[in-house]
Amino acid sequence: MIQKGKKVSLEYTVYLEDGMQIDTNIGDDPLVFEVGMDQLFPALEQEIVQLGIGDQKEIRLEADQAYGQVVPDAFREVELESIPSQFRYNGAILGVQDPSGGVFPVRVHEVKEEKAVLDFNHPLAGKNLRFDVKVLEVA
């Protein structure tokens, strides 16, 4: 078992429940995280710390263990004119700056005649995920 405070390097690929690949670092730099520092989803980390160097595992996370469920209160209606014209379609992703200077994605859920409904949920909210991981190094 990998102990708290250890740095783990791993290779991963993430899939949606239907098998569509949404992310991978294979062929790029490994993901490095420190065990116990809340850098990964807790359920994912819990599975990874059971592995050893060279071990591979398929780890499935329910939506509640990953980005959570879709929150109905995270939908907001805004004036259509406040949305740049090139983003006035269903499914468009806007980058919205938060007060601390970070940028997070907001999806245009619906475009009406004079309003747009924006979805502030994480794009992967409500989705079950599958991670294929391989532990490369533990230091």
Overview of this protein structure:
By secondary structure, the chain is mainly beta. The chain has two domains: about 80 residues, Chitinase A, domain 3 (Roll); about 50 residues, Beta Barrel (Thrombin, subunit H). The protein has one helix and nine strands. Strands 1, 2, 3, 4 and 9 form a five-stranded antiparallel β-sheet that branches. The chain is elongated and about 55 Å long. The mean pLDDT is about 95.
Could you give a quick summary of the protein structure above?
The protein has one helix at residues 42-48, and strands spanning 7-16, 21-24, 31-34, 56-61, 75-79, 93-97, 103-111, 115-119, 129-138. The protein has 139 residues and is mainly beta.
Write the layout of secondary structure elements.
Layout: E1 7-16, E2 21-24, E3 31-34, H1 42-48, E4 56-61, E5 75-79, E6 93-97, E7 103-111, E8 115-119, E9 129-138
Antiparallel strand pairs: 1-2, 1-3, 1-9, 4-9, 5-8, 6-7, 7-8
Low-confidence stretches: none
- Sheet with the most strands? 5 strands, antiparallel
Number of alpha- plus pi-helical segments = 1
Structural class of the helix and strand makeup? mainly beta
Instruction: Supply Rg.
Output: 18 Å
CATH topology of the largest domain: Chitinase A, domain 3
Order of helices and strands: EEEHEEEEEE
Question: What is the CA-CA span between the terminal residues?
Answer: 13 Å
List descriptors.
single chain, 139 residues, Chitinase A, domain 3, Thrombin, subunit H, 2 domains, 4-stranded antiparallel sheet, 1 helix, elongated
